[in-house]
């Protein structure tokens, strides 16, 4: 009985947790890294949605969409639970916008039926599918959980995702030039003195080898010069 009570207490405390901070990394269309207000990096898995895997069609587009929404922005995360990988699973909010829901509205993620119960998410997916937004432009789009179950590891080289049809941005969505990382490329630079912005330095530590710009390994580069 005591063991059951302790488990219940742990689950309740996790569910009630709210995290606040700054998004410092985007892994894919449903996973990001939050730097909390007490400077602790926390991996966040967006709850009730499942984005295309990196090697699926629209995998990179979904990642870029999430980057546009939250990268280097202040967010609040309503944590529901923790998954088997130690990630905090919850709803991410920037301003008054539910980012999880926005990814579905844009056609950049599926409603994760196995774990989801929010009817707003289900309805948003239905609307995005009817409008052929994002990944729904492909009538044969394969859900990530089906793709993973099939044991696929890469997308055939000849297959490219069609141009995405996107809805108008939500009112809470604002332009964020620093989130657009496609303008940068690994070119051998390694030091903060060679960077021109925090966004550029962040791109380099995430994507480029042998970079020496994060001395304390907290995920934030060039804190004295650029990412203050």
UniProtKB/TrEMBL annotation:
* Keyword vocabulary terms for this entry: Endonuclease, Hydrolase, Nuclease, Signal
Q: Where is the composition biased (Low complexity)?
A: 156-169
Q: Where is this region: Disordered?
A: 148-176
UniProt entry tagged with the keyword Signal: yes
**Position of the signal peptide:** 1-16
* InterPro entries recorded: Excalibur_Ca-bd_domain (IPR008613), SNase_OB-fold_sf (IPR035437), Staphylococal_nuclease_OB-fold (IPR016071)
Task: Cite the TNase-like domain residue spans from the record.
Answer: 17-138
Q: Would the keyword Disulfide bond be found if you checked this record's keyword annotation?
A: no
What Pfam families does the entry give?
Answer: Excalibur, SNase
Q: Which GO terms describe its molecular function?
A: endonuclease activity; hydrolase activity
| Protein name (database record) | Thermonuclease family protein
Q: Which organism is it from?
A: Deefgea piscis
Its lineage reads: Bacteria, Pseudomonadati, Pseudomonadota, Betaproteobacteria, Neisseriales
């Amino acid at each position: 009985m005591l063991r059951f009570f302790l488990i219940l207490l742990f689950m309740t405390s996790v569910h009630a947790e709210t995290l606040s901070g700054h998004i410092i990394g985007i892994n894919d269309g449903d996973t990001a890294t939050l730097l909390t207000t007490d400077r602790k990096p926390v991996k966040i898995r967006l709850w009730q949605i499942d984005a295309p895997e990196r090697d699926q069609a629209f995998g990179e587009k979904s990642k870029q969409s999430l980057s546009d929404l939250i990268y280097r922005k202040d967010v609040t995360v309503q944590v529901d639970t923790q998954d088997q990988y130690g990630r905090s699973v919850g709803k991410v909010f920037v301003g008054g916008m539910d980012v999880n829901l926005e990814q579905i509205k844009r056609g950049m993620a599926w409603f994760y039926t196995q774990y989801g119960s929010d009817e707003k998410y289900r309805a948003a997916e239905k609307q995005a599918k009817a409008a052929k937004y994002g990944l729904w432009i492909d009538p044969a789009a394969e859900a990530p959980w089906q793709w993973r179950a099939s044991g696929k590891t890469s997308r055939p080289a000849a297959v490219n995702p069609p141009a995405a049809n996107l809805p108008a941005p939500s009112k809470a969505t604002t332009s964020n030039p620093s989130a657009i990382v496609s303008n940068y490329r690994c070119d051998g630079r390694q030091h903060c003195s060679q960077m021109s912005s925090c966004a550029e330095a962040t791109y380099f530590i995430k994507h480029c080898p042998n970079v020496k710009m994060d001395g304390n390994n907290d995920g934030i580069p060039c804190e004295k010069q650029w990412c203050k």
